[in-house]
Write a structure and sequence with these properties.
The protein is of the alpha/beta class. Helix content is about 40%, strand content about 20%. It contains 23 helices and 27 strands.
Length: about 800
């Protein structure tokens, strides 16, 4: 007995030494990482930004050990921060720390989702209190008639710090302690208080930390009140008037919208805004109704106060998160720029990505290093990734199969523990070992169970699906996971439908629903499945990122052409579900997509997976895996994404803010005064006459030009402050499509009464039926958007 105890102790010590050796190696690698300064932020384009970029988000998902996220928005925010660290950008993040996180999910024996609060002990999380011994330990934010206090916590993410505000402290009353109780919890009043704490409290936190950002990035509209607080500070401290302060603040603001439907954007009724911001308007020295209008399109005074519109009005840089989402967003918010052509609405697009190193399995990372080299240094180089075609078939397949087997063992273990928790019979627990099979084509579907994501589309024809799953020679199996918001009854019903179907006789080993979806389950799934399924109702998926995570791990995407997959799909790297229907009903799109989904599975995907010419390997499937890796990995990553944010949005914002800040904010004040005068004088601007130089001809030849002369009345407006253009393009049912704008030059003054002559030409570069209109827009060297004043006069 003594000998056995001694042997066990020796084994423990040996294991401890192994652990310590591995821990030392991790620290050495991390020190090396922190010491690397030949990076984008120090020597590349990012070095143009000296002061930090402040990134605000309601949720951040870095790892399952700190559950401060609900889904894709938070995971994206976490991956954004990780790449900002990798690139060594000057970057800081701001959020809220939720006592109960989002929620733990438990599914009962009937498939009903129960939401379990976490009640976290923050001292057990990888965070530390900020400001202790450095300054005031608390910041305070006025909410209604009182000061609400918040403690600050710091989470280090490589070189980047995330600061999280926590109101669950003794200094607050019971009601205010609940502000940071749970993510997206409570009623509309609680949402208002959370967003005040995030936006206004976040600005105060940065000031308390002594951080003076060059750029403020709002990741979704939850933090948009930060813009009002920054304006207030400039009014109170720099004695600027409201509109001068607005020019200064908006110059530094970047806004990313993720929601392609109006109902998904936070809004507040007028009386609630008056209750919380009536006194705030007085501090800004403007009437409350004027403040309220910054959250409206201004077409209908009865509209509520939209946080997205506030962010758009108080930012000079805004973007959607994929090319298609950019198009949808410009159309969705066109009324904020009334009269402006949709394609000129100043919202650009930067397609989302994922932090590849987080989501790539270590086994695949090692495979790439062996055959391609140091892939981390060449992540965004498409040519480098052509090397995946040189990886031997057997090694690529073996790596994938090992991860698939690990996934299946993981699923079985989770299901075993679930059955034990539910008190199921020993026989039921033993049957867990029959669930899933590593030799069967495995489909993964995991995401929020929002109704537009159509989690049960695969169940549209259950008998057809049963035949597919239980085919004698070419079966299929599916793994589902995901949470529905606790108040989303329709989403919870979808979970219940999946769960119940997975428990039907003959299907219990072919379909599994994993409860309590988090980033750990997500990693297991994207690293182990053969096929990643995604079929949102088009075009409601702003971007989506889960399929991007599957590709570097050899997973292949089967998705509708929505969000990122509309850009990522090339015809050889996966499959596209259904046609791009733009105006069909939901029922029609469901019918078309379900039919397409079954057809692809039955006639293309399943036969390809099981086609093994040598009896061992699915050679054609392996080529598809390689093309998926090659085409998706170097493009759809946050390394590329953060560089695009830096070069297209952060650097211009930082430069504009610096220019407006000089000489006592002289440029901001001048621009504000100029805008006020232009708005006053603009009603007089008219296009009184337009003539065509060769009007006697019915048509002109390709290669010729159409000569245009316009008589424009500017009144008191200086000609140097307008741009006169011929807006032209193909005509279809009276509308101009694929338009271009040709500048018309001032050639004379018609009289002394503010009338001017403008002339120019429209080139006829192609044959067809074309039309044109003449327009006048205000212009100034300090404008950052062509339509910043939202003034435009058409002929």
């Amino acid at each position: 007995m003594l000998q056995l105890s001694r042997q066990s102790r020796l084994e423990e010590l040996a294991q401890d030494k192994t652990f310590l050796r591995e821990l030392k190696q991790v620290f050495e690698e991390f020190e090396k990482y922190l010491g690397r300064h030949d990076t984008y932020g120090k020597t590349g384009a990012g070095s143009a930004i000296k002061n930090p970029i402040a990134y605000f988000s309601a949720e951040f998902g870095f790892h399952e050990s700190i559950p401060n996220y609900s889904g894709g928005l938070g995971i994206l925010a976490g991956d954004h921060c990780k790449s900002a660290s990798d690139l060594d950008l000057s970057f800081v993040a701001i959020g809220l720390l939720y006592r109960h996180g989002y929620f733990r999910q438990q599914i009962d024996k009937d498939g009903v989702q129960a939401a379990i609060n976490l009640n976290q002990n923050f001292y057990h999380l990888p965070i530390r209190e900020a400001l202790r011994g450095n300054g005031k330990p608390l910041i305070s934010v006025p909410i209604l008639d009182r000061q609400v206090f918040a403690r600050l916590w710091e989470l280090r993410v490589g070189r980047v710090s995330l600061y999280l505000l926590d109101t669950d402290i003794p200094e607050n009353n019971a009601e205010d302690r609940l502000i940071t109780a749970e993510l997206y919890g409570g009623d509309l009043e609680m949402r208002m208080r959370q967003e005040i704490m995030l936006g206004i409290g976040g600005v105060k936190a940065l000031a308390a930390l002594g951080i003076q950002p060059a750029v403020f990035h709002m990741n979704e509209g939850h933090s948009a009140f930060l813009a009002l607080e920054r304006i207030r500070l400039n009014v109170v401290e720099k004695k600027l008037d409201f509109y001068s302060a607005l020019q200064l603040v908006a110059a530094a603001n970047v806004f990313t919208t993720h929601t392609p439907v109006p109902a998904g954007n936070d809004s507040f009724p007028r009386e609630m805004m008056r209750k919380y911001f009536g006194n705030f308007a007085k501090e800004l020295n403007i009437p409350f109704d004027e403040l309220f209008s910054f959250g409206q399109t201004r077409l209908d005074p009865n509209d509520p106060f939209s946080m997205t519109i506030l962010a758009l009005r108080l930012s000079r840089h805004a973007n959607g998160v994929s090319k298609l989402h950019g198009e949808v967003t410009r159309s969705l918010w066109k009324d904020v720029w009334a009269g402006v052509p949709v394609h000129e609405v100043p919202i650009t697009n930067i397609t989302n990505g994922v932090h590849t190193k987080t989501w790539m399995a270590p086994e695949f990372a090692a495979l790439y290093r062996k055959h391609l080299g140091t892939w981390e240094e060449h992540l965004t180089e498409p040519e480098f990734w052509r090397g995946v075609f040189d990886i031997p078939d057997a090694q690529l397949w073996d790596t994938h199969q090992r991860l698939k087997l690990r996934l299946i063992e993981f699923v079985r273990d989770r299901e075993r523990r679930r059955r034990e928790r539910m008190g199921e019979s020993p026989e039921s627990i033993r049957r867990v070992n029959r669930i899933l099979d590593p030799e069967i084509l495995t489909i993964g579907f995991a995401r929020r169970f929002a109704t537009y994501k159509r989690a049960t589309l695969l169940f549209s024809d259950k008998e057809r699906l049963k035949r597919l799953l239980n085919d004698a020679t070419r079966p299929v199996q599916c793994i589902f996971a995901g949470k529905a918001h606790p108040r989303d009854e329709a989403g919870k019903a979808l979970i219940q439908e999946v769960y119940r179907f997975s428990h039907e006789a003959g299907l219990e080993n072919r379909i599994v629903f994993l409860d309590d979806y988090d980033s750990y389950i997500a990693r297991r799934l994207v690293q182990g499945v053969d096929l990643w399924l995604n079929h949102p109702l088009r075009p409601l998926e702003a971007s989506g990122t889960s399929g991007m995570k599957a590709a570097p791990n050899g997973g292949i995407n089967l998705s509708v052409l929505d969000g990122w997959w509309r850009e990522g799909y090339n015809g050889s790297n996966g499959w596209a579900i259904g046609a791009e229907i733009n105006n069909g009903t939901t029922e029609f799109q469901n019918e078309v997509d379900a039919s397409s989904l079954y057809h692809l599975l039955e006639n293309q995907i399943v036969p390809l997976y099981y086609a093994k010419p040598d009896g061992k390997l699915p050679l054609a499937w392996l080529q598809l895996m390689r093309e998926s890796i090659r085409s998706v990995t170097p493009v759809f990553n946050t390394q590329r994404m953060v560089k695009e944010y830096t070069e297209q949005l952060y650097i211009p914002a930082a430069k504009s803010y610096e220019n407006f800040s000089r000489d006592g904010c002289g440029a901001a004040t001048h621009l504000s005064q100029w805008k006020t005068q232009i708005r006053k004088d603009w009603s007089a601007v008219k296009i009184s006459d337009v003539q065509i130089g060769n009007k006697d001809r019915q048509s002109i030849l390709v290669g010729e030009s159409l000569e245009i002369t316009a008589r424009v009345h500017l009144g008191a407006v200086d000609p140097q402050h307008v741009r006169v253009e011929a807006y032209h393009g193909e005509v279809d049912n009276g509308d101009i499509h694929n338009p271009s704008a040709a500048l018309l030059n001032q050639t004379g003054r018609a009289d002394g009464d503010g009338n001017y002559i403008y002339q120019g030409a429209i080139p006829a570069s192609e044959s067809g039926t074309y039309g044109f209109s003449v327009r006048v827009v205000p212009t100034h060297p300090c404008l950052m958007q062509m339509h910043e004043l939202r003034l435009i006069t058409w002929s």
